[in-house]
């Protein structure tokens, strides 16, 4: 039996394919025909969602901890005014916890045939690529009783780069580098391997640096000054195996290693050395080679952005073979890895002679500051046990470092905040000693 009157009107409204009826309205519509008619008109006057044209513009990269603005442009080709709420969906790590709702939802009004822009501000909490998900739009009629809803795919990617917090240490290390280079008034005496210039002897100079021929031609004693060699090759090797996933504080050990590698790369490129990068666990995760001094730091930052710890045991033999292929001649190989006893004794030590035979090797590791805190703990039975465990862990770490030093390896073991400047200091010490 066909429906008539009010029942037919309610049934017709209920069958609307894209209408969204607010809770509680169904019962009202069943007894109020004029309101039902108003709702039907409201739905009919809502601008269509499927016909909207969306595009993006804005930032494609940002550093971890900083913001990125992505602009969404909406074009309304219909003849109806668009009154809408939209959600610009991104991965949860694109915002700090609890702020996603404020950052991704917008209200917008677009007259017929016009366009409007809304900006989503991201503040990512993790490195890597953040890709936009769909844009969901809910278009309301003039009374706000009914709405049309639809989604659009509008691709966009923001790459989150390492923060490079250790850049604050770069000016002081560059000053020391200039001192080694002889470009400041404080000249080094008898250091380096390349002859730089002659100057007048001052008390305290190494007598082995006196140039007797130059002295014979003038009335004062002349000494040679030296500067470190340039155009040396430095290979930064990042161990991305399971040990790099261990968290120190609130970040993985890998992040502290990345920061230290960036400071060393910036310093070495200013010194005229060539810097390459190898990230490895059981296969090559990143490889940067042959970059110019001006391009090396952006290339390293871009390659490091997507690196994540892999929960696998690092293949020391494969790492060594790949490093030797990447650095075929005498180089400085900086291995950023762990000093835990088992991985070093079972993995690194057996293959270490292959590296030290031709190259100068530095092993840099992130130390946990909580171990030192635990070692000082006293006052209760639990605290004494913690102190004993910390002392044992520290002793094992020192023993492992000593084993590496007996193979001619320079060891840098420091907390996350101190690792980058300590590694830079080790590099400058090798320069000053003429070993690089």
From TrEMBL:
Keywords linked to the UniProt accession: Lipoprotein
Pfam families per record: DUF58 (PF01882)
Listed InterPro entries: DUF58
Transmembrane segments: none
DUF58 domain boundaries: 198-374
Lipoprotein found in the keyword field: yes
Stretches for region Disordered: 92-112
Keyword Oxidoreductase: no
Protein name: Lipoprotein
Species per Swiss-Prot/TrEMBL record: Streptomyces collinus (strain DSM 40733 / Tue 365)
